[in-house]
Every structure is written in C-alpha cells, then in structure tokens.
Amino acid sequence: MPSFPSFDDAKLTEGEILWRDHYNFLKDRGYTLRKRYEPEWVPSWLNTSKDPRSCEDAMHALTYQILDATCVDGSIAAVKRVDIRKHPDELALAKHMSTGVFSSHPRNHFMPFLFEIDAPSFETIGEVVECCRQLFEGLNHMHENLVIHGDCKSDNIMADTLRLFDFPPHPVRPYMKRDFSGMMLEPASRTLKPVKYYLIDFGLSKIYRPEDAPFLEQPPWGGDRTVPEHLLPDAPPCDPFAVDVYCLGNAFKYYFFDGEDDQRPVLQGLEFLQELVNDMVNSEPTKRPSMSEVVSRFDVIVAGLGNWKLRSPIVPAGKQRSLFKSIGHWSKQLTRMARHIPAVPKA
Questions:
Q1: pTM score, whole prediction
Q2: What is the SS3 assignment for 115?
Q3: pLDDT category, 34, cuts 50, 70, 90?
Q4: 3-state SS string over 59-122?
Q5: What tens digit of pLDDT does each residue of 47-87 get?
Q6: Whole-angstrom Cα distance, residue 66 to residue 275?
Q7: How many H-runs (helices) and E-runs (strands) does the chain carry?
Q8: 3-state secondary structure of 158
C-alpha cells in the first residue's frame, strides 16, 4: 500500500537513507532519483503554508527495495536493491536473461516493471487475451530453457502501461502527474497502444542443467502461500516447474475470477479461460499441464473466439452496461474494425 504523508515526512526513513546515499552513484550512471533523495534535499513545504500532501517530495517510496528513476533520455526506470546475501544468484540470472538469445527473443517477458496488469482497467476481452498470451509464453520460454521463476505470484507480473499516458503518473499517487503539476488525464486504449507484460523479481529463480533431472526442490518458497505441495505435513521435495504453473494460474484467478472486492471484481466474459486456469491450479502437481501445454491449449482456445467476442467490453460479473456506454463502446469498435486495428493488440 502507498505510504501517506505524515508529520515526519521532512525526515527520510531508514530505508530511504540508502537511496539518498546512492543518489550520486546512480546519477553518474544515468539514473536520477526524485528530489527527495538528493543529498542536500530540503523539504519544499518547510517555512511555507504548503500542505505536504500537495508536494511531490513528501511522497515516500511504495517499497524501499525498488525506486523509480529518470534516465538520461527522459524515460522512467525501476532501480532495484538486491541483497546478494539472500539472493546470490539474482544478478547472474538478470545478466543471463538480458543477453544473447534471451534478450532478443520475442517471448522474453523479463525485465523492468511499472504497474499492476489491470491498472488502468482492461477495456476489451482481446486485451485480456494478449496479457495472458504474453505471460504464458514468457514463462514457457523460461521453462524451455530450464529456468524456473520461483515466485510467480500476482504482484510479480506487471505491465508497461506507462505508454498509455501522455505524461508519466506518479508512482505513489498514480492519479497525479509525476511532477505533481496536475491530475492525470484518461489513459489511451491498450488496443491502440499495445502494452508489454513482464515477469519480475527473480530472487528465487534458478537455472538447471539437463543432467540435474529430476528437478526437485525442498518446499516452501515464494510468496504464494497456497501452493498445495508446500502445505503437506513434512512436505517432500517437489517439482518447481509445476509450482510455477500453479502460481501463474493462481495469479490469473486473483485478477479475473476470485473477485477480491469492488476494486477488483470477478469479470464476466472470460469463462473460456476458466477450465485452463483451473487445471493450472490443480491440487495434484502431476495433473497440472506443463507451460508448453498451457500455451498450446490457450492458442486453440483463442482461435475459437470470434472478432465480436474479442472486442466485447470487460464488465464486472452481475453488472450491465448502460445503453449509452454500450453505444459508445461499439461505436469505437466499429471504427477500429474499419481501420483494420486488430482485436488482440499484440505488442
């Protein structure tokens, strides 16, 4: 959850001090942190009548492990603090996934992250299909190369939705522009500006060799506390690839089918995914499909969806769109069809 301004916002927290101490180090390498982390920072609201809540430099980081930075070309990057004592292989894996065949492969959905996959909301079923396709193919690509993710929980799949905005939103107050110069405007459509989706946080990832088979690890691990084989009494070593399948399926359950609250309700119209997702979260690991089987089944499912279905609006279960909204939605879709804009916006 965001950390809201309080009486002590004029002081950096212990977690923020590390970023302040590395401000110049990062700037010399092309990454400039926000003003709050400048070594000589003085809060902009001091000795004024300003409310700290209206000041950008009163905004704490969402997490002190990751912080946003501005690159020399003006783009926004995420800078991550890695504890090599806890995760000694994470940097090596990052280099491995960022070079050679991995970096150039179109199914490599590894690297930076920005926002949760449903922020802003999906507009059409085709947009959800593209999200699933990229993440299924991304994890399958890892598995084909004998790499497990190790922590495919819901908040480790992210979207580059920054491209949907004319001005970057603030990472702590996404309804505000990044420089606090005003409120954000309506985002563009993912159908018109296709989005890339990413698997992030490789602290628990592992690379295997063919001679390591059978691939087994001692549970528990990862942030998903519902993995069935991890909950067994005196749980024996289990297949980490099957655990990855479960966790990604469970992440999609969370986003599309569980209906956590009014902010993230169950979505109607996605029933075509239900059987596949249910199989991915089967309590028996040997009955789960492999990621290659997930991709094959998904392709068959999507091939059976018609153009009108893919362009249908995303609507919370049990809700009906007003006639006015329906006319507006389908007017846009007919225009996009006339312009030959695909229903599934591939990035």
A1: 0.84
A2: strand
A3: very high
A4: CCCCCCCEEEEEECCCCEEEEECCCCCCCCCHHHHHHHHCCHHHHHCCCCCECCCCEECCCCCC
A5: 999 999 899 999 988 778 888 898 888 888 888 887 777 77
A6: 36
A7: 10, 10
A8: strand
